[in-house]
Design a protein that fits this description.
By secondary structure, the chain is α/β, with parallel strands linked by helices. It has 13 helices and 17 strands.
């Protein structure tokens, strides 16, 4: 195999160098996302395939260890998606803290659908609270207002890479004895006062979908400092296997029914198959090495685009501004229509799209307004005024590492053209 790898490697490297030099001029086009990878990810994936270990194996273990170290936790559990990570983490919290069906989980009204869906799928009740316009994150004041005797879990989301106020949220969680799951699916490498998102709560989840700050194509990760939560997550991830199914010292399992049964085929709970493959982990190992630099590019692009809005939007458009102590990693770049704007979100988005600038609304806008959640379990706290304003008045655009200075300049020109129609 080594000889084969040594022969393939120069060809793969040459391919990616040629690909980079021959890319078409995309100055007048801005994709929402584009995965940034090269021969390093490709060669590790090819080597993995040639090794024959294409399911969960040594790469997954290495990726889990590297991710835990990077995010500042004691363990990482790789999964097949961020959505799966949320479901597994919630089930683990339920079992670990003996949380009963129907217990409430406080989460932001403005976020992606698979924040709330796993809550319902786990037999729990979502409680939707409003977000702060300035950060797009869950409002601590609204969290305090939302807490009831049924509340058992707090689930903040670090929206688009902007850290939620985990200092205040953790104080509330401690005061009211709440478990905390951080949804970090959009915040790879974000920090609050130097501490990585994902390392504040009891457990945290990440997504490595192709559009995110780093990718494994499809994939996710759970991180925690709690050894029992780690074991529970590994069990739920893999069919509900016995927590010690890989213990070398315990080959056989016995109880009042089973005697000397192979522990690898003992199942403690109803679980799932949500494992990551070694091929996906091969990508993740290399992507993690590049994450900080890729985030730097996103931040540089965001800084430039903020200046574009300030100088060319006549005060009609704005974006989130990074507060002291916050390190924003900009999964995408949000653009908010101010109340003074004489145009609609649809008019603005369609103008950008007409000029090859991809846009999206801010995920589900306001989750309880979505068809899937209208008749599902859950309760709203207040009228969700900010969430509904964001639902109707925000778009985001791409500022990934494939977006260069000329793309930013082009977006500025198009935004200026649009604004001029209303002056």
């Amino acid at each position: 195999m080594d000889k084969c790898i040594s022969e393939i490697a120069p060809i793969i490297k040459d391919y990616y160098e040629r690909l980079s030099s021959q890319r078409p001029d995309l100055t007048s086009s801005v994709q929402l996302s584009a995965p940034a990878f090269d021969e390093r990810e490709a060669m590790r994936a090819i080597s993995t395939i040639l090794s024959g270990m294409i399911s969960q194996g040594a790469n997954v273990k290495e990726f889990e260890e590297n991710a835990a170290r990077y995010f500042g936790t004691s363990s990482g559990i790789a999964t097949n998606s961020g959505s799966s990570s949320n479901l597994i983490a919630l089930l683990a919290l339920k079992e670990h803290f003996d949380i009963q069906d129907g217990a409430e989980v406080i989460l932001p009204a403005t976020t992606f659908a698979t924040v709330s869906m796993p809550v319902i799928q786990a037999g729990l009740t979502p409680v939707y609270v409003d977000v702060d316009i300035e950060s797009l994150n869950i409002s601590s004041a609204e969290v305090q207002r939302a807490i009831s005797e049924k509340t058992k879990i707090l689930m903040p989301v670090h929206t688009l890479g902007y850290p939620a106020d985990m200092v205040q949220l953790m104080e509330l969680a401690s005061k009211h004895d709440l478990a905390v799951i951080e949804d970090c699916c959009e915040s790879h490498g974000s920090t609050l006062h130097g501490q990585k998102t994902g390392s504040f709560g009891d457990i945290a989840t990440f997504s490595f979908f192709v559009a995110h700050n780093m990718t494994t194509g499809e994939g996710g990760m759970i991180v925690t400092n709690d050894s029992n939560l780690d074991l529970l997550c590994r069990s739920y991830r893999e069919f509900g296997r016995h927590k010690n199914s890989d213990a070398e010292s315990s080959r056989y399992y016995s109880d009042e029914v089973l005697t000397d049964y192979d522990v690898r085929y003992v199942f403690d709970r109803l679980g799932y198959n949500m494992r990551m493959t070694d091929v996906a982990a091969a990508f993740g190992i290399e992507q993690l090495k590049k994450l900080d630099r890729m985030n730097d590019i996103r931040r540089e692009n965001a800084s430039k685009l903020i200046k574009v809005l300030e100088s060319k939007s006549n005060g009609f458009l704005s974006s989130t501004l990074e507060a002291d102590g916050y390190y924003h990693t900009y999964y995408t770049f949000p653009i908010l229509l101010e109340e003074s704007a004489p145009f609609s979100r649809r008019e603005f988005a369609e103008f950008l799209e007409k000029h090859n600038i991809e846009t999206r609304p801010l995920f589900a806008g306001c989750l309880p307004d979505q068809p899937a959640f209208r008749d599902s379990p859950g309760r709203n706290v207040g009228n969700l005024e900010n969430a509904r304003y964001l639902r109707d008045n925000m778009v985001f655009v791409g500022i990934h590492p494939g977006v260069g200075p000329q793309n930013i300049e082009y977006m500025g020109d198009i935004i200026s053209q649009f604004i001029s129609l209303y002056l």
